[in-house]
Amino acid sequence: MPADSPLPTSRLRPLTVTILALAVLLLAGQNIVRAVAALTYQPILPNINLTRLVRIDGLLAIIWGLIWLAIGVGLWRRTAWARHAALWALPLYALIFTVQAALLTEGIYEQGLLLSRFVLWTIICAVVVYGLTRPEIIRRFDEAAFLREGDPHVDRQDR
Fold first, then answer.
1. For the chain, which residues make up each domain, given as ranges?
2. Mind listing the pLDDT tens digit for each residue in 60-72?
3. CA distances (Å), 125 to each of 8, 40, 86, 128, 147, in order?
4. pTM
C-alpha cells in the first residue's frame, strides 16, 4: 500500500473482497440477462414447446440475479450479512445449477461435461469460502461495521 494513501489500511477493502464483489456483480448481470432472454423466449419450432421450462428458468434467473446483486453491493460495502450470505448462497447456487443441468441435459457431450462442471463449482466454492473465512477478511468486515455503526458496546444515547 502506498504511504501517501488517504485511507488507513483498516478502511481499505481487501483485494480478495473487491475481486469477489465484482465477480458477484457480474454473476448478477449474467443472471439478469439470462432472465430477460428466457422471459422473451419465442419457440422456433411450434411442435416443440419448451415455453414453461424456459419461463421457470427465467424466474429462477431473476431471483438469483437480485440475490447476487444484493450480495455484490453488500460485499462492496463490506457488510457482515453479505459475507455470511455469500458463504451460503454460492454453494446453494452451485448445487441448484448443477442439479438443474443434470436433470435437463440430454446430449451425450453435455452429460460428459457434468462431472467437470461439478468439480469446477466445488473448486470455486472452496476458494470463496476460504477467502471469506480468513481472519484478516473477517476483521476487515468487523471494522467496516464498526466505522459505520460505532461501537456496539456503547449505548447510542451516550454518544
1. 13-142
2. 999 999 999 999 9
3. 31, 31, 10, 5, 29
4. 0.76
